């Protein structure tokens, strides 16, 4: 699997900020540079947001390259795009702006979100599902469940995102209009790196349905000029309703599941805590749980322009001018149900498996535990790993040397040094503190 999150080594200074923030401990610092363990990365984009040197980026397509690749291009914008603009009073200005910069058609992911909400209740009546039902709308959360909470895979609703459903329906609409399939290019406009990765490697579909993903921040810059030149009286009515647009912020999807008792959780740390509680058997009293890796939902994605709190305020103002929702036709419902039937449950990814051989895996686990007990447990990051447990695993798995721990080096120096202070080379917070007793005038190490 190819991830969209990547490192620019020239900018990386090995500061260890990213390793302490990664929720899956997928980053290490070795030889002064960060490196990503690809089998553990969920593309949540946390490292992109916290890196002080902008050394972590999301690889995605450019707007101009996307428009040149196909004769007929379709844009599938996430509703988070609308919240990035100042003084915007009509979503149709943004959608018509996309046509002005070169796209031939628009299919809102908000429209497909409304369709998903409308058909899910009917779909669930014929399918047994574990409770609480977990939302699959965030690709980062789905991958997190696959690698860390495999026992909860049965709780996932059909794994298809509004963007993917919109892409399928948009392509079919273009083909019905007579456009040759090979000429059609569908490009999503997304707020986060996990959706960029999902475009090329979807979680619940047999094959990709999106030809590329564009970052909201890149499209935002392209739209600023053309949007100013649009005549408000000549705008095409392309906007959807409030129900689908609300999926951009935490709680919007849950509200669209009208008769469900729901919980909405945002922020990857909070998501992990909730999944741990469910895995431990502490089931919340809810029918449906919406999970979003980013703060405030998609509005907090790393590829947005505005901070999520301001963006939510703007989006709610825009929603005041929209109809509640558009009722899908019976044909549209049947088509959506058929697509849901074709989805697949994602499989467990044995990322944390120490060895395929059970006996060897147990031996490695014992070695990790024994080494961890001899480490200081400070989570200082000086070894290049996010925790002493992760460092012990790296040593046992051959990814690091035990001498990478500065405290282990200190122990060796204490045996070798003659009259020298073995703590002298350590950073000040990690040196042993020495005090002089008043009575004897002797030093005591604390």
Describe the sheet with the most strands.
4 strands, parallel
Overall mean pLDDT score? 89
How is the largest sheet built, in terms of strand order?
6-5-8-9
Count of individual beta strands: 13
Q: Span from first to last CA?
A: 50 Å
> Which shape, going by the Cα principal axes?
globular
Counting DSSP H or I runs of 4 or more residues, the number of helices is 17
Q: Residue ranges: pLDDT <50 for 5 or more in a row?
A: none
- Beta-strand portion reads 5-15%
Q: Please write the string of helix (H) and strand (E) elements.
A: EHEEHEHEHEHEHHEHEHHHEHEHHHHHEE
> How many domain modules?
3
Rg, alpha carbons: 26 Å
Estimate percent helicity: 25-40%
Structural class: alpha/beta
Jot down its keywords:
four-stranded parallel sheet, three-stranded parallel sheet, 3-methyladenine DNA Glycosylase II, Chain A, domain 3, alpha/beta, globular, Alpha-Beta Plaits, 3 domains, 446 residues, single chain
Structure notes:
- Helix content is 38%, strand content 11%.
- It is of the alpha/beta class.
- The chain has 3 domains: 53 residues, Alpha-Beta Plaits (2-Layer Sandwich); 279 residues, no CATH class; 88 residues, 3-methyladenine DNA Glycosylase II, Chain A, domain 3 (Orthogonal Bundle), CATH 1.10.15.40.
- The strands form 5 sheets. Strands 6-5-8-9 form a 4-stranded parallel beta sheet, with helices on both faces. Strands 7-11-10 form a 3-stranded parallel beta sheet.
- Helix 8 links the parallel strand 8 and strand 9.
- Helix 5 packs across helix 7.
């Amino acid at each position: 699997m190819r991830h969209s999150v990547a490192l620019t080594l020239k900018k990386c200074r090995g500061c260890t900020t990213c390793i302490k923030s990664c929720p899956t401990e997928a980053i290490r610092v070795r030889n002064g540079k960060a490196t990503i363990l690809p089998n553990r990365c969920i593309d949540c984009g946390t490292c992109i947001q916290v890196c002080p040197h902008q050394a972590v980026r999301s690889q995605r397509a450019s707007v101009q390259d996307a428009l040149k690749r196909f004769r007929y291009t379709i844009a599938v914008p996430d509703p988070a795009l609308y919240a990035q603009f100042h003084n915007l009073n009509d979503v149709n200005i943004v959608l018509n702006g996309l046509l002005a910069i070169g796209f031939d058609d628009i299919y809102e992911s908000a429209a497909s979100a409304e369709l998903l909400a409308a058909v899910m209740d009917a779909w669930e009546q014929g399918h047994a599902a574990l409770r609480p039902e977990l939302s699959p709308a965030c690709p980062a959360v789905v991958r997190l469940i696959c690698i860390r909470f495999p026992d909860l895979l049965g709780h996932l609703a059909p794994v298809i995102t509004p963007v993917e459903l919109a892409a399928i329906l948009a392509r079919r609409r273009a083909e019905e209009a007579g456009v040759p399939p090979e000429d059609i290019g569908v490009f999503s406009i997304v707020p986060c790196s996990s959706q960029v990765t999902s475009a090329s490697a979807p979680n619940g579909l047999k094959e990709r349905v999106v030809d590329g993903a564009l970052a909201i921040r890149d499209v935002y810059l392209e739209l600023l000029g053309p949007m100013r030149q649009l005549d408000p009286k000549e705008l095409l009515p392309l906007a959807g309703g409030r129900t689908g647009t609300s999926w951009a912020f935490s709680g919007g999807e849950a509200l669209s599941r009208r008769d469900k008792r729901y919980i909405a959780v945002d922020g990857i740390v909070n998501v992990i805590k909730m999944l741990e509680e469910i895995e431990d058997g502490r089931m919340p009293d809810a029918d449906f749980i919406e999970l979003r890796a980013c703060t405030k939902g998609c509005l907090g994605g790393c590829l947005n322009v505005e901070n999520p709190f301001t963006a939510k305020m703007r989006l709610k103002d825009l929603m005041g001018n929209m109809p509640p929702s558009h009722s899908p036709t019976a044909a549209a419902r049947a088509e959506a149900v058929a697509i849901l039937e074709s989805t697949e449950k994602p499989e467990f990814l044995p990322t944390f498996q120490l060895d395929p051989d059970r006996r060897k895996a147990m031996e490695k686990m014992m070695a990790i535990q024994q080494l961890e007990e001899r480490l200081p447990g400070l989570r200082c990051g000086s070894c290049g790993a996010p925790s002493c447990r992760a460092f012990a695993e790296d040593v046992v798995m051959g990814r690091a040397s035990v001498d990478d721990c500065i405290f282990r080096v200190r122990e060796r120096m204490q045996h070798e040094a003659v009259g020298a202070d073995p703590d002298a080379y350590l950073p000040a917070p990690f040196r042993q503190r020495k005090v002089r007793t008043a009575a004897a005038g002797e030093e005591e190490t604390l």
